[in-house]
Amino acid sequence: MVSACLLGVKCNYKGGCSYDLTKNSRFWLNLCDKYNIIPICPEQLGGLPTPRIPSELLGKAEDIANGKGQVINKEGKDVTQNFIKGAEEILRLSKVYKVQFAVLKSKSPSCGTKTVYDGTFQGVLIDGLGYTAYSLKKSGIKLYDESEFCVLEKCTLSEIQI
Ligand code: SF4
Question: Which atom of ligand 1 is nearest to the CA of 42?
């Protein structure tokens, strides 16, 4: 699975894409030769519009899973159920397609694998996972941050060692 916004798909909260891995054709063709790639956007699958008001986690992803945290958007609206639904749909697809690994967008409240914003909308990053990233990791799927891929534009797949 790959965050769709890293594949040139205009699904991020601004209605744009965040990167386009497919522009590195050698890398991309190697990847496609070896794996079936499934683009995912948990926020869209959770029913949020595009473009949309950006959201941040209040609490850790595990708190949200335990009903002790929330996801709110910048206007203060509680979008926790959208995030939970999106993660459930992605998890369902991961099982249908027997997904081995996911390459996910950095810092996203859904897809972040290392850090997320702290819920203050002040641009402060803290250690933690986005909600879908947390769900995928909990089900045993190996996660890669985009930075582990996107800085490797000149690499071949064999150099990346998935
Ligand atoms: S939810 Fe994930 S895939 Fe969708 S725009 Fe945000 S970071 Fe990209």
Answer: 1
